[in-house]
Amino acid sequence: MKILVTGGTGYIGSHTCVELLDAGYEVVIIDNLSNSKIDVVDKIKKITNKDFKFYKGDLCDYNILDKIFSENKIDAVIHFAGFKAVGESVSMPLKYYRNNLDSTLTLLEVMNKYNCKKIAFSSSATVYGKPESLPIKEDFPLSTTNPYGTTKLIIEGILRDLYKSDNEWSIAILRYFNPIGAHKSGLIGENPNDIPNNLMPYIVKVATKELDCLNVFGDDYDTKDGTGVRDYIHVVDLAKGHIKAIEKILNETGIDAYNLGTGNGYSVLELVNTFKKVNGVDVKYKIVDRRPGDIDACYADNSYAKEKLNWEAKLGIEDMCKDSYNFVKNSNEKK
Ligand code: NAD
Ligand code: UFG
User: Fold this and answer.
1) Which of 199, 270, 291, 296 is the best mutation target for the ligand 2 pocket, counting ligand atoms within 8 Å of the beta carbon and taking the most?
2) How far apart are the C-alpha atoms of 263 and 232, rounded to whole Å?
């Protein structure tokens, strides 16, 4: 079975390619490298000892997609490619709508042309907005607070309309909670060049002394210690969830959404303290104002994914903290 992975050199895509190759799937990647590096291709090959095709190209470009589908018999697609920075999407909404929507529409049109009607799509827990209760179930009301989230919600709607128009489609909408961690090899992971937006990459850069001090956004939330609570999930567990989703869509038609989270909520301070403990390093932090748009707490009810995909996360936050740090230390040593 041959799987096209869009955004396959990115953070979650690269880990998913490793799991796909290890599980015996053939992989084809398309990525324009707007937020990833070409060396990831060789790193995936090194980890898996398997070869695959990589196309450098933009998903908004019909011609490159047409070329990929004409050169390869693609059985299903996992669609990761897109921009993902919430803050940037607020200041540059058109950039986000153009890239995330255009790329998806072009991809779906070409898939339709080649009669490839199986897709797993990277959505996000951000589509639940500010949930009225916890844990979050898939049938909770959907709403968004920023253009990035709105692109996810629009794409979910496009996929539902597509299925309504043609029941031969088979679509898995995967709503990720907060992926962190990295592959055990230390070869692939997440290490943004700019100042990180997300908590774990920021903690790591404070631990490696690339940044001075973590700003903890608020300690007056309605949570166990006043800091924000999230459902952190190891990226390798998340990647394995995609293998289960692919098995499902290869075997059945239909459309469904699944929460991919651990079901456990950890606060910012719990994550910082675990990171310090398991890695034996200091992480300086100070409490600052809340970040606009942040919610108190967010964690998944993952029972639907357990039941329907036969998937469940196995790794805990200690592994997530160790592996995130190991990856960045490893990449800094090689610089
Ligand atoms: P990432 O930025 O590391 O990977 C995305 C990849 O897509 C990058 O390699 C980038 O170069 C590529 N890309 C972007 N636009 C493209 C285009 N037009 N054509 C070709 N390639 C393009 O992000 P990630 O963390 O791996 O996230 C993958 C997906 O999961 C995204 O859709 C993201 O919105 C979603 N998601 C991520 C998180 C998270 O916290 N990381 C949470 C929920 C959902
Ligand atoms: N936080 C800090 N300091 C920082 C960064 C974050 O205190 O420097 C706090 C936040 O206030 C929040 C928690 O750490 O309480 C997690 O913040 P992240 O930015 O790591 O993650 P978010 O939950 O805000 O958002 C992430 C992705 C979104 C995605 C969402 C749900 O960035 O794209 O998870 O999946 F939609």
Assistant:
1) 199
2) 9
